Amino acid sequence: MVNKPLISNRVAQIQKSAIHEMTRLSKEVEDVAFLSWAKPTSDTPEHIKEAAIAAIKAGKVGGYSENAGLLPLREEIVKKLKRDNNIDANTAQILLTVGAIEGLSAAIMAIVDPGDEVILPSPTYSTHIRQVVIASGKPVLIPTIEEEGFILDLEAIKKAITPRTKAIVYCSPSNPTGTVFSEQQLRALAEIALEHNLMVITDEAYEYFVFDDHKHFSIASIPEIRRNVISCYTFTKTYAMTGWRLGYLHADEAMIPHITKAHIPFAICAPVVSQYAALGALQGSQSCVSDFREHYLAARNLMCERLDRLSSVFDYQKPGGSYLMFPRILLEEGKDSTAFCIRLLKEGKVSTTPGIAFGPTGQSHLRLSFCVPLDAINKAFDRMEVYFR
Ligand SMILES: Cc1ncc(COP(=O)(O)O)c(C=O)c1O
Predict the structure, then answer these.
(1) Which of 41, 175, 201 to mutate to test the pocket of ligand 1 (most atoms within 8 A of CB)?
(2) Which run of H or of E encompasses 280?
(3) pLDDT in tens, 287-346
(4) Shortest-distance atom of ligand 1 to CA 100
């Protein structure tokens, strides 16, 4: 008798993450210059760590919190949503989650039935695609318009809607392109979603990192569509709290109990020690956030300058936000972005992420992160200048 693999089709069809594969390969290369991680390299600010330590010492973190999260933290989040996102919320509309990731997963699980279609502007953060697949939904990738800075192709989105379309999932500012979708485009997207009664699930992980004249716009601030929106946020990027695993989502209060039903089997509640740290983050000085933003802006400018010196190898759209960019590889060998990145790693000692990891439109691109010290950008580009010469 042949043993059948006991893995669900749902999980079996998920491909290995190219990001994690590159990380594994990068560890085999000595003294590598890393431009492949999308996680802040700064440590969590002291006052946030101290808030966590005080909660530990006071014996507050050993149990579960309410499934939705600590009430004082939800109260602070309500204030933040009003101040920074122009969203009128109340505490019954907030759910604390294990990073933005678990919030997105719970939201998608709560919305998507097997076979439902979910529209994702592409290239997109690959985890969103996997989250739809794990919910047995069908990801429908709609290319963005690269020449105009990877903006939404609203006509193509309209055309892709079928009776099975349930939701649109996007992240702005974008991972991997750094595009900040404009208020005008998001208002038009809201109209499309309303016309077809679709849910909109947003990933606003990089909300504070926007540059030049770009403004972060939260689609849930449009009153007419608020009920159809689930907005996902995180402490990971804003306060350099990657390992604390804390995020939250905002949705209509009628929706929250359903999303909570999807949240409980995976998490019960978000980590309590991290919730106290987050309370310290929201109640404390916000100067760390502007310091991070200033650094990313300087790093983006440096990376663009260095890319300008490699204009026979890369073409790029200047990112308006996040700490990521997505240059196109002009060389013939860039057509296979994975092979290109592996060669650049092994022969040039620079670690980047192949564009194909972000959907088929990512082919011929690579993703570069500028959430690193300026020295790291210079080191990587000094090497690339030698390598491509
Ligand atoms: C767009 C986007 N969303 C979510 C995450 C993960 O967020 P969290 O750590 O809050 O789960 C990342 C991390 O790289 C990201 O780039």
Answers:
(1) 175
(2) helix 272-283
(3) 999 999 999 999 999 999 999 999 999 999 999 999 999 999 999 999 999 999 999 999
(4) 10
Instruction: Write down the domain spans for the chain.
Output: 9-43+287-388, 46-283
CA–centroid distance, residue 235 to ligand 1 (Å)? 10
Write the pLDDT tens digit of every residue in 255-297. Answer: 999 999 999 999 999 999 999 999 999 999 999 999 999 999 9
Which protein residue has the closest C-alpha to ligand 1 atom 12?
Answer: 205
Contact 252, 57 (CB under 8 A): no
pTM for this entry: 0.96
Architecture per CATH, 46-283? 3-Layer(aba) Sandwich (3.40)
Distance 233 CA to ligand 1 centre (A): 9
Ligand 1 site, CB within 6 A: 38, 99-101, 125, 171, 175, 203, 205, 234, 236, 242, 247
**End-to-end Cα, the chain, rounded Å:** 58
What CATH number does domain 9-43+287-388 carry, 1.10.645.10, 3.40.120.10, 3.30.750.200, 3.90.1150.10? 3.90.1150.10
The C-alpha angle 65, 107, 117, rounded to 5 degrees, equals 165
CB-CB contact of 119 with 133 (8 Å): no
CB 233, CB 247: distance < 8 Å? yes
By alpha-carbon position, which residue is closest to atom 14 of ligand 1? 38
